[in-house]
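Quick one, probably user error.
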């Protein structure tokens, strides 16, 4: 579904990521870990074609990103939901309007999709906060709204960048429960996190691969986690 072949990336200085070859299968569950600044966010951006590799090839859903024009890339990116680290919202729009934005942008704003929006807000526990403005939300509510916004276009894969970064343990478990449930429904999930306790807790519930960025490479972490 997302394949890397000898991928490297540099922001202009030395190489940040080198020689990455891996395959993220449909329905798989991955964690991505590594020290701050190792390149986790950069790796995720390569996964959803927000960045183009400086060497090698990324293939999304069987199509090499390098061979596609901007429209083609934009079309494929809709199949990947992203929960960004800073989960930015438009503060003058309500939670429901923010979550619905990807529908409007992608021309999928139909009555059926609006019905899905209500169900989705209930599923993430935000039905009662639908009319709130983003600045009124708690950290955990923001993260769940960001997850709902990533899911509204029904992507095949979810990439979440430190989704539990600003929330307490109970809320991080609640978010993990949602991500595990998504995975059980068939979505591929990848979570970038520093939080090894989160990974250990999830490992008892799902078959997961843990990727670790070390010395510019993305490697499969051992059983020591
Ligand atoms: N747009 C950019 N231009 C230049 N350098 C960048 C850019 N974005 C990130 N970097 C640098 O690339 C390195 C990796 O950043 P990245 O955000 O991918 O790491 P990370 O592992 O996600 O870090 P953290 O865990 O702190 O979020 C850092 O040194 C960062 O300063």
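Nope, works fine. Designed sequence:
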């Amino acid at each position: 579904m997302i394949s890397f072949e000898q991928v490297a990336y540099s922001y202009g200085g030395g190489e940040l990521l080198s020689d990455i070859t891996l395959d993220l299968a449909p329905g798989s569950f991955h964690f991505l870990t590594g020290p701050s600044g190792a390149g986790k966010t950069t790796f995720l951006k390569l996964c959803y074609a927000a960045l183009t590799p400086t060497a090698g090839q990324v293939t999304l859903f069987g199509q090499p990103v390098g061979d596609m024009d901007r429209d083609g890339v934009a079309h494929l990116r809709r199949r990947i939901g992203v929960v960004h680290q800073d989960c930015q919202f438009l503060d003058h729009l309500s939670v429901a309007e923010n979550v619905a934005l990807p529908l409007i942008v992608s021309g999928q704003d139909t009555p059926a999709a609006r019905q899905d929006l209500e169900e989705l807000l209930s599923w993430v526990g935000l039905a009662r906060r639908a009319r709130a403005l983003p600045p009124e939300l708690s950290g955990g509510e923001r993260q769940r709204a960001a997850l709902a916004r990533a899911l509204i276009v029904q992507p095949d894969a979810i990439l979440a960048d430190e989704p539990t970064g600003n929330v307490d343990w109970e809320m991080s478990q609640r978010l993990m429960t949602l991500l595990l449930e998504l995975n059980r429904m068939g979505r591929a999930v990848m979570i970038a996190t520093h939080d090894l306790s989160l990974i250990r807790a999830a490992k008892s519930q799902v078959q997961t691969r843990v990727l670790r960025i070390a010395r510019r490479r993305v490697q499969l972490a051992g059983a020591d986690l």
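The radius of gyration is 17 Å.
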